Amino acid sequence: MYFKDIIGLSDVKKHLIESVQMGFVPHARLIYGPEGVGKLPLAIAYARYLNCQDRQSDDACGKCPSCHKFDKLSHPDLHFVFPTIKSKTSDEYLAEWRQFISQNTYFDINDWLSFINAGNAQGIIYAKESDEILRKLSLKVYEALYKVMIIWLPEKMNDTSANKLLKILEEPSDNTVFLLVSEDLEKVLLTIQSRCQPLHIRAIEEEEMKFSIQKLYGLDSSSATSVAHVANGSFTKAINLIQSSDENDSLLELFKEMMRASVSREIKRVKKIAFEIAGIGREKQKNFLQYCLRMFREYFISNLNEPKMVYLNAEESQFGERFAPFINENNIEKLFDEFALAQRQIEQNGNAKIIFLDLCMKVTVLLIK
User: Fold this and answer.
1) Is the pLDDT of residue 369 over 70?
2) Is residue 309 within 8 Å of 269, Cβ to Cβ?
């Protein structure tokens, strides 16, 4: 990946390039921001530029031996850490990771877990990963100017792994650069944050998004504008919208059935949808709860008659025509609280049947009120 492959973010790319040209290379950067805006490809492009043997004014040369190795993500001084399953280290999935990255520039954790057939397993950076990090970084730089360690989603590190990382972040070996790429800064240990140079990545501007959608997918101006608006700064979401993501459709169907069951006040129907959601797997349950939070926000805003502030596709808008009035100032805060609580409980491996049955019953009460 090169800087030219990243949509928009011209100000961020300029900052990174100029910092290298001026010799300002922090030993650790924490690149954070919303999902789907290109943080990981940005980190890879930056790592490539750091080690390019013939840096250009706006990007790596693409011709030197270092760039050729980066093309295959096989540079001996480029290391990756990312969430895995079955207590395995990143190196054990390195072949799959390289293949996945070569096929995808914009993606999320669910795309990666689906690629490795994770099933219901949650992606985690396990404790023994930190031992691998220490081992790799104890070695001298092999052939490049910098040894680069890219850690994707440090918020997925368990406590043991995260705490082991602290010392080497504070006292890294010479010519070592850490690039931590986070989508949930609040879940990254404060002690890790304090040892890194923060770099916030904003959402992609709507016009930047529209231009890229038209260029890459050949959509007409009207369709591209609609997708760019609903995607709300996330190119990953834009891709899913264009490809009519089956998961998004299934999340909407689950949401509709959950809300209809709650409004009906039929206990058997409420129990049925609660148990159905409990059986879809942890990662999809978390996605569903996050999706519900987004829907509540959109339907609440839609009641204010501010269409430019609403980010719904056609199917979501259609359902909202009748359902949106149920979401109002009397229940919006409590709905957010209950769904956020359920999300935390699922992340802590609580009993899904109990969590979702309890949640559905609470929703029934809140919507009737």
Assistant:
1) no
2) no
Two tokens, residue 99? 């293949």
Q: Which residues touch 61 (CB under 8 Å, ≥6 apart)?
A: 52, 53, 54, 55, 67
Phi/psi at 148 (nearest 5 deg)? -115, 130
DSSP-derived letter for residue 325 is G
For the record, the structure tokens of 71 come out as 């093309």
Of 273, 279, 275, the residue nearest 258 (C-alpha): 273
Three-state secondary structure call for residue 313: coil
What SS3 state is found at 80? strand
109-127 pLDDT per residue, tens: 989 999 999 887 889 999 8
Model pLDDT, residue 222: 82
Asked if residue 31 lies in contact with residue 179, where contact means CB atoms within 8 angstroms, the answer is yes
Q: How far apart are CA 332 and CA 334, in angstroms?
A: 6
Q: Tell me what pLDDT residue 272 has.
A: 96
d(CA 236, CA 225): 16
Task: Name the percent of the chain in helix, strand, coil, to the closest 5.
Answer: 60, 10, 30
Dmax (CA) for the chain in angstroms is 68
- Provide the whole-model pTM: 0.73
Token pair, residue 193, equals: 């944050």
Q: Would you place residue 147 in the very low, low, confident or very high pLDDT band (cuts 50, 70, 90)?
A: very high
